[in-house]
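Figure 2 data, in text form.
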Amino acid sequence: MTSFSDLGLPKQALRAVDRMGFETPTPVQQQAIPYVLEGSDVIAAASTGTGKTAAFLLPVLSRLGKREKGKTAPRALVITPTRELAEQISYNSKIISRSCGLFSTVVFGGKPYNSQIRELRRGTDILIATPGRLNDLIERGVADLSEVEVLVLDEADRMLDMGFLPAVKQIVSKVPKERQTLLFSATIDESIQKNLSELLVGPKVVQVAQKGETAKIVEQFVMPASNSQKPELLKCLLDEKGHDRVIVFARTKRRAEDLARELNRSGFKTECIHSDKTQGQRKSALQSFRKGNAGIIVATDVLARGIDIPEVDYVVNYDLPDMPEDYIHRIGRTGRAGNEGFAVSLVAQKQIDRLEAIEQLIGRSIPVMRIESYDLDMSQLAKPSRREAAKARDGESKRGSRQKARKARSKKERKDPEYDYTGYGDLRKGAKKRKDLRPGDPDMRPGRANRKKRASSSSSKPKRNAKKSDAPSKRNKKGKR
């Protein structure tokens, strides 16, 4: 059996291996580490949870050596798509850096600039960054990439999916052409080969996982349920299978929030993570889950890639993802580093097409899981007829149109808000409510009724005085009293 010492790592890196609790290298580490140590460019594809981070950090930090006095610019740069991934890589990097006598710095959005600028000015050996924040720091003249010897593109497929290609190319243009480039990804597809292969020179290819391969140790199941049945089915599943270390994936931010609220009301300690949460809120939720204060995390796909949450018992797909590849990343949150785990997908009839696409991608059908406390609605697995499918599509189209109309109205209201200046006193005096005014009425403008009233009040006052002075008194008009 191969050990880390057999891979050619120096003593200081092996000390870091002991601190991190690694015993034997994973397949991607066995294949990639020797190539990185010899200075070759590398393209590595491996499924999530297989140790890609250590596969590039251990050899990269081993090769850097001590930096020259007076130089502060980073010599290794790791670009990763999300804040959570940046923090995770930074955590592992600091352990290895300390063993190697080096310094590590992380920069990403959602944090104040000042502290990150101070870190960079003090000097660092390896910089971990998200594309947006790094470009901001480059424009401010703070991040100097002229001394970078090793460039790492982590989760490259995810960066392309998130639209970071222009930002990544802008960063690469600031890095010396004479460098070592390492590209790590869950999959190597045509998009990566087309857009990023030009950044590497004669790369060694490490293909541990083919596209569509999932962690073999993760058992996969489906449970049929309509959307109205899903909340009750999920609670029964959590009661029966346990709810101490569970991740539940929802399709949208709103569904994630609603589901987390419902689970908390039902007595399940639950946290929620999605892209609208601040960095501090996400970090707090993950820490609460890791410490066992919360047994369940409800999340959107923001948590699907690269985040290492150890000992997750199982994953629930409350909604199937839009893209089959995202299913693979979701279920990869469990069964990591040799641990056992399973994944359950709750499937409604209108999601059968998505289920079939997933089964085609992984090359096998997914069996049904049954539980004692809930009778499954097996009719949900029957493929809808053409008429039902057309009706469902028409319904989705109408819902989409209604949502667009609501957004347009909301946008218009934000731009030109309508206010009701009519108070109770005005109503007693006969003023019109805004809702009673017809479109196009000049009084539709905010405050028009009150302005008009004030104007008429001020203009009519002299006239009343004039009439009073010119008109005959009651005594004269009647002749006598």
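Caption note: The mean pLDDT is 80.
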